[in-house]
Every structure is written in C-alpha cells, then in structure tokens.
C-alpha cells in the first residue's frame, strides 16, 4: 500500500505540491529506490544477494508506475491509427482530413513512446469499465472538444452513445452530451473558451479577431453552474486569449490585450490568461458539492509557418519534428508556464479540500507534431475558407494520444484511491 502511494506521487512528482512531511519522506524513499540500483549497476561485478533483492522489488513494484509518461519521443508505428473516417462517424468536417483529401498518410503512423516505460494502447473496454456510472466533461474551447471527438471515436470500437444534448441545451453546436447506456456513462463538453464571462465588444459583430470583453474574476456560468455533477473534468484553454480583449475586474475596465485604445493599458494576453485560469481553478475548488477528479490539459500549440494565421500561414509538414528541429519558442513556453504556475498554486488547496488535480502535460509532445493539423483539409475544396487551420488536430491523429494518457491516469487514479480504502 505504501508503494502505491509512492507510485502516484512520482508520476505527478514534478507538479504535485508535496505539502506534508510524509510526502517528502515518500518521495525521498522512492528516489532512493530509484537511484540505488543505478549506483549499484556501476559496480555490478560485485553484485551480492542484497543487491538482487533490491533489484527484484524495484522491478515488481515501481517500474511501470513511476514512469513520467510525458517525456519521450514519437516513434514510427506501422500498425497505424485506431479508426478511420470510414469507421468512426463522429468526426466533424473541420477535423476530417481524410474525407477532404489530405494526400499523405505518414502522420497517422506514429506513437508516443515515453522514455521510461510503454504507454499502453487505448483499450475502449477498459476505459468504459473505469468510467462506469460516471460523468465526464470537457470544459474549455474547441481544442478540448477535439479531444472529446477523439474519445468518441476511440470508444466507438466498443460502444456507441446516444446524443442527448437537446435534453440539456438548445445550443447543440457548442454544448454536447452523450450517454453510453450500456455503461451508464455520460460524456459532455461545456463550451467556455475563457472560463470567465465574456461578450463581444465590436460594434460590427463577431469575427476571428474582433475585440471582446472578458470579466476576469467572474466564472462563466455556462460551465460553473453545471460542472458540480461531474466526476471527471478535463479543463483547458488557450487560443482565444490572443485576440483583442478588454479586461474587466470588479466590473471595471482594468486594461486590455491589443485593443489599440490610447487610454487603456495593454497588459498583454498573459495577464488575461493567468487570471482566467486562477478564477477557473478557484471556482472549481469552491464548489461545495464538487467531488470530481480534475485534469488540466496544458496548452496545445499551433504551427503556422510561412505567415501568421491571418496572413496566409499554413502547416504543410508531413513528419514530426525531431528534437533537434523543434524550437521551443518563447511564446509557447510562456503560455504553457503561465497556466502551469496557476495550477501549481491551486494544487495545494485542492489537496486540502480532498480533490485530485492532475496535469496532462501535452504542450511539448504536440509541439513536435506540426504534421498533425488539418491545414486546408478541414473543408471541401470548393468551400472558400480564408484561413488554414494549424490549431486543431486531424482525426485520427496525434490528439488520440491525449486519450491514451487519460486512460493511463484514470487507471492510476483508481489504483491509488482503492489503496486508500
Ligand atoms: C535486475 O534488473 C535488470 C533490469 O530490469 C535485469 O536485467 C536483471 O536481470 C535484474 N537482476 C536480477 C539479479 O534480478
Ligand atoms: C515479484 O513478482 C514475482 C512474480 O510476480 C514474485 O514471485 C516475487 O515474490 C515478487 N517480488 C517482490 C519483492 O515482491
Ligand atoms: C512537461 O513535459 C515536458 C516533456 O514533454 C517536460 O520537459 C516538462 O518538464 C514537463 N512539465 C511538467 C510541469 O511536468
Ligand atoms: C474517407 O476518406 C476517403 C479518402 O481517404 C474517402 O474516399 C471516403 O469517402 C471518406 N469516407 C467518408 C465516410 O467520409
Ligand atoms: C482490454 O481490456 C479488457 C478489460 O480490462 C481486457 O479484458 C482485454 O483483454 C483488453 N484488451 C486488450 C487488447 O488488451
Ligand atoms: C447511473 O449513474 C448515476 C451516477 O452518475 C447514478 O446516480 C444512477 O443511479 C446510475 N443509473 C443506473 C441505472 O445505474
Ligand atoms: C477611453 O476613451 C474613449 C474615447 O476615445 C471613451 O469612450 C472611453 O470611455 C475611455 N475609457 C476610459 C476607461 O477612460
């Protein structure tokens, strides 16, 4: 049982606030276990019975579970994707790259290989067993919904849900709810690209880069009033924060991002992004009835090349970057770190409240996949679209990996909670 507690700490080790002396002891204990054999291996000639005992116990108890699944590399995987546009009918046009004639296939033949272990294949039967009787929700923007659509496809190998969205909302484009009757499992998304209250501020209406007002200290009721009933919450946001924004706090205009107004201070996108995450995490923790497990999925980078997104930028690559090719640009790193900081700041409080907060650290792994976006294959050829999509991900595609992570972490979470009994 002790070992199991260890396992979880180590997986989350880098970002779990270890706030009790007991936690520190556990980590030190595990570090010792990990490091001992390493130092022993150096003079393995002198191996003795004591050493092999340590070796054995390490093999059995900690080898698999102490793995940091987010550090690794993409490796060729000839077996290819779990599903296709023909076998899964849930793929929306915008992400249905095969349907709209994407010619290359190599991007479908890679798998994420963590340095320290194997990431198990997605097993729909196992996933559905783990979530039986539960409700899961994606809170955030369309990239979060992208992951939900991937999950629908992955699960469709075993079970098809009923679309019950209309029972809950009239806005069924942005708010979806699916019910897997055979497992009493509900899968939903709550659209809220800022997590906080927002409205259009451009008299000419809404476009991709029109100005909006966001109220940084007021959670968006669209999710805040619904989320309490969910057992699993996947929360993420990003790309909406880069447009022109007017920031409000306490109902007052406090600054903006790229608003170009002389009398309003430009506080940059990071200011809004940070505060919105703070409000979102705090809101979750303050909900009295909320007992769910929260997964914060880190920023999913875009890959526009040859121009900005609105200046003809595109993403035509057909292979992942190698680690050498990849440039971890300042911008992505800043966005990623800003939200991670907020996550770390709230984690301690979450733990004290008895809530499990974990991170799906997908930024760097996706940065390696400039080949995974729809580019101009998210719509019919004759449909006149102004911009290429280098933000969302083709289905099937590298985004399926996020659900492999999710399954891995759900399983680990269950192991740790059952060991507490
Ligand atoms: C110790 O572990 C290594 C790596 O897992 C393995 O190859 C080796 O056979 C083990 N040694 C003993 C004595 O069990
Ligand atoms: C490791 O596992 C093997 C077989 O599963 C078992 O025989 C052995 O006793 C275990 N060792 C430890 C130290 O738990
Ligand atoms: C996230 O994963 C990357 C590798 O993909 C690693 O460099 C980074 O340290 C991780 N961040 C956290 C907070 O664990
Ligand atoms: C799936 O994509 C192929 C091209 O790879 C296309 O021929 C086929 O019509 C598509 N199927 C559906 C259902 O869209
Ligand atoms: C998937 O999971 C189920 C239930 O845990 C298990 O019975 C089955 O063998 C697994 N399938 C594969 C291919 O591993
Ligand atoms: C389905 O799960 C919910 C909890 O999400 C529970 O309240 C309900 O009783 C379950 N229904 C059935 C038929 O098992
Ligand atoms: C800023 O100036 C505009 C006119 O240019 C005015 O409408 C607005 O109320 C001013 N805002 C503040 C905060 O003073």
Please give a structural write-up:
Mean pLDDT is 85; it is low at 1-64. It is globular, with a radius of gyration of 22 Å. By secondary structure, it is an alpha/beta fold. The strands form three sheets. Strands 4-5-6-3-9-12-13 form a seven-stranded mixed β-sheet. A four-stranded mixed β-sheet has the order 7-8-10-11. Strands 1-2 form a two-stranded antiparallel sheet. It has helices spanning 2-11, 21-42, 49-61, 124-130, 142-155, 221-224, 268-286, 330-352, 363-367, 400-420; strands at residues 72-76, 110-114, 135-140, 162-163, 176-180, 185-191, 196-200, 212-219, 232-236, 245-249, 252-257, 293-297, 356-360. Residues 14-15, 70-71, 340, 361, 364-365 line the site of one 2-acetamido-2-deoxy-beta-D-glucopyranose.
Uncertain runs are 1-64
What's the β-strand tally? 13
Give the CA-based shape.
globular
Mean pLDDT, nearest integer? 85
Strand order of the largest sheet: 4-5-6-3-9-12-13
Structural class: alpha/beta
Instruction: Describe the main β-sheet briefly.
Output: 7 strands, mixed
Radius of gyration: 22 Å
Which cofactors or ions or other ligands sit in this model?
2-acetamido-2-deoxy-beta-D-glucopyranose
Helix content: 25-40%
Number of helices: 10
Task: Give the N-terminus to C-terminus distance in angstroms.
Answer: 10 Å
Domain Trichome birefringence-like C-terminal: 119-408
GO cellular component, one term: Golgi apparatus
Protein name: Trichome birefringence-like N-terminal domain-containing protein
Family: Belongs to the PC-esterase family. TBL subfamily.
């Amino acid at each position: 049982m002790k070992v199991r507690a260890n396992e979880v700490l180590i997986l989350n080790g880098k970002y779990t606030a270890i706030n009790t002396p007991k936690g520190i002891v556990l980590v030190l204990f595990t570090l010792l276990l990990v490091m001992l054999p390493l130092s022993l291996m150096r003079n393995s000639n002198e191996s003795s019975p004591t050493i092999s005992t340590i070796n054995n116990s390490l093999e059995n108890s900690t080898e698999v579970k102490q793995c940091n699944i987010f550090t690794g590399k993409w490796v060729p995987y000839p077996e290819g994707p779990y599903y296709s546009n023909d076998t899964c009918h849930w793929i929306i046009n915008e992400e249905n790259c095969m349907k709209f004639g994407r010619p290359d296939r190599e991007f479908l033949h890679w798998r994420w290989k963590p340095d320290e272990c194997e990431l198990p294949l997605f097993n729909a039967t196992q996933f559905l067993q783990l979530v039986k009787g539960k409700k899961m929700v994606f809170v955030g923007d369309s990239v979060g919904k992208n992951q939900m659509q991937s999950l629908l496809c992955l699960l469709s190998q075993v079970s098809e849900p009923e679309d019950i969205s209309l029972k809950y909302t009239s806005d069924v484009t942005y708010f979806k709810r699916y019910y897997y009757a055979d497992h009493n499992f509900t899968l939903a998304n709550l659209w809220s690209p800022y997590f906080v209250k927002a409205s259009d501020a451009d008299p000419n209406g809404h476009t991709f880069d029109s100005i909006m007002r966001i109220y940084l200290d007021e959670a968006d009721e669209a999710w805040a009033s619904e989320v309490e009933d969910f057992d699993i919450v996947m929360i993420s946001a990003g790309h909406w924060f880069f447009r022109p924004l007017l920031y409000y706090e306490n109902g007052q205009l406090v600054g903006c991002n790229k608003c170009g107004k002389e009398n309003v201070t430009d506080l940059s996108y990071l200011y809004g992004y940070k505060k919105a995450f703070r409000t979102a995490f705090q809101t979750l923790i303050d909900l009295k009835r909320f007992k769910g497990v929260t997964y914060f999925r880190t920023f999913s980078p875009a890959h526009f090349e040859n121009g900005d997104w609105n200046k003809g930028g595109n993403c035509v690559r057909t292979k992942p970057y190698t680690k050498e090719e990849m440039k971890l640009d300042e911008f992505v790193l800043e966005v990623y770190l800003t939200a991670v900081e907020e996550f770390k700041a709230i984690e301690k409080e979450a733990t004290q409240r008895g809530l499990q907060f974990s991170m799906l650290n997908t930024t760097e792994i996706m940065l390696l996949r400039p080949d995974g976006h729809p580019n101009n294959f998210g719509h019919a050829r004759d449909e006149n679209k102004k911009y290429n999509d280098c933000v969302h991900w083709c289905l099937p595609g590298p985004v399926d990996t996020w659900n492999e992570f999710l399954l891995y972490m759900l399983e680990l979470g269950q192991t740790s909670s059952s060991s507490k009994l």
